[in-house]
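User: Run a structure prediction on this.
Assistant: Running it now.
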Amino acid sequence: MGEFIGKGRKARRCYGFDEISIVPGNVTINPNEVDTTWQVGGLKFRVPIVAAAMDGVVDVPFAIKMSQGGGLAVLNLEGVQTRYENPKEVLERIAKASAEEATELVQDVYLEPIKEKLISQRIEEIKKGKGMAAVSAIPQKAERYGKIAQEAGCDLFVVQATVTTVKHLSKEYKVLDFHKFCKEMKIPVIIGNSVTYQATLDLLDTGASALLVGIGPGAACTTRGVLGLGVPQVTATCDAAAARDFYHRKSGRYVPIITDGGMTRGGELCKAFACGADAVMIGSAFARAKEAPGHGYHWGMATPHANLPRGTRIHVGVTGTLEEILFGPARLDDGSQNLMGALQTCMGNVGARNIKELQLTELIIAPSIQTEGKIFQKAQRVGMGK
């Protein structure tokens, strides 16, 4: 499998969202009558969209608001929310910094030690606001922070790194035993990120409640440029979904796949589900919300790395409320608002009554799908030409 890219060296052709299209169905359904719900660890959500654990996207009020809308937002336990008593002041400084100052400022801001009392405090604040509390940490911090989070009443714990594998070698620090960790945690554990069939299969066997798929596609992520790593999201999602389905047939346990990153518009989100995702995780689309703490700026979790940043601060602007971004009415013409309306309409047009059926819809390779007939939009920089 694959094509020769040089003498004796083959590479597999992989695909991103711009290169494929969803084929309409032979039966259509009223979009208001489709079921968009998904489940993870026994918890059921009406909105299959998760807000990413990034400081410009999720704080306590945003997590509560997202929960009220039927979705889920993940709070980063290694961000400004747990380093500072008053993170708003820090976020304002980051937003006001020039492009030249931004990376150095972010690196400096994240040198402040994490205060464990703030982990409990933030989770308690979300629960007090009747929100669903989901938090994240890197594997090296998962055991310590997982215990604190669980005792504080957390609902979901996410273990997330740029690349996560079950087998990890290190003499410098203690390696997390995912099997043991998932077994000992009394709340659902989501693990990420991976992009290959085998790595997904290995992670599924840990007892995780869901997996995150995606390396480097995020709007603020520079991993693909800095490290040369990544697999386009269409192929990564299809491969992970194939592993999920094989594992389900073998074990009888169904573990949801969450496509993480690379989606800013409704069409990309719909394609992720058609490729096999059970839910999606997005950052930049939510960073545009009036309720987001980044003031129209967005940066990744690896941006503050002291020696090798794998992210950057980008300006996405404030374009609408969280309500408008999720449910409309859309006030923009580029597909970045009313994401749930887009998903429901797509499901109706392919005849999918639920997410499972959308995963089975026909896909085609269509490299001209974004440009065919769009010359005026492109020239005028409107709609799909932006």
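The chain has one domain: 18-385.
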